[in-house]
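USER: If only I could read backbone structure tokens as easily as an amino acid sequence. It would mean a lot if you studied the pair and described how this chain folds. Here is the record:
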Amino acid sequence: MRWFVLFAASAFACLASAHIVRGGAEPVPSEAEGHPPRSANHAFPRAVGTETHHAKRLVALAGAAPDGPAEAEAAEPLPAEVERILDKMEAAGKDIRTLRARFDYELNQTLYEDIQKRKGRLAYAAPNRLRFAFTDRPKETFVFDGRVVYHVKPSTRQLILWEMRTADEPPVETLALGKTPFPLPFGQQKAAVLKHFRVRRDAQAEKKDPRKRAVLVLVPKKGTTLAQDYAHVLLWIDTKRWMPTRARLLDPSENVTTVDFHHIETNVEVEDATFARPEVPDDWEVVEHRKADEKAAQQNEE
């Protein structure tokens, strides 16, 4: 598993928090405006009414090839201690087939002096399945089965589907950097990280951490998709298991998202039903965003 399972988790968390900030329920999309949030990892609460813009990003990413070479930047030598940490994180993630964890999530909208806190659980099965659920109110669940993102919203009695791969297409191969809108933080290859980020240690954050974790600062390189979504990312790494246990993401709107992972279990049994299409009552509304329809709408706008 690639070690950015975390971005996926925090991404879905951000997506749900956008609904909370808007007052809970998301308006039912019309046929003309029914679009998914821009990308799971860029669903931080922004101005109301930005879903159409978000949709174009997700539709594009769903069918796009991975990012090409990042815009040329001055080469910086990678500190030996940073390389050692990335090597150990990559090695720790290679043998992970499944993962379960609990998380504490906090969104700090600094411009509005507003803080949202939530709790939840996640499950992952290599190479491309993920379930992310908020266990406190308002409860919400996100499931990705390799083809479709399912969003269960009890508050509005809706099941919302975002199709990323059609039945005729192969499923998403992995949740790796540059390949999907929601890459994960556990097990990412060092080469992929260095392709997308400039990486350094944060000595001050390490000194303040009572758990004595290593702290990395990841700054997206110019020309990458992630540079549009994040100003920088901080990762706190448990140096016994060499896995991230905290991530802090700063987006261009100065929203700060912090996700703390705990009760992490690897290579435990996770049933296939965990990642199946969620069952909902017959009287719930099902809102479907099919890939072909979204692409057609985007082409018409162009």
Remarks:
- The chain has a mean pLDDT of 78.
- The first helix runs from residue 5 to 21.
- The chain has one domain: 5-301.
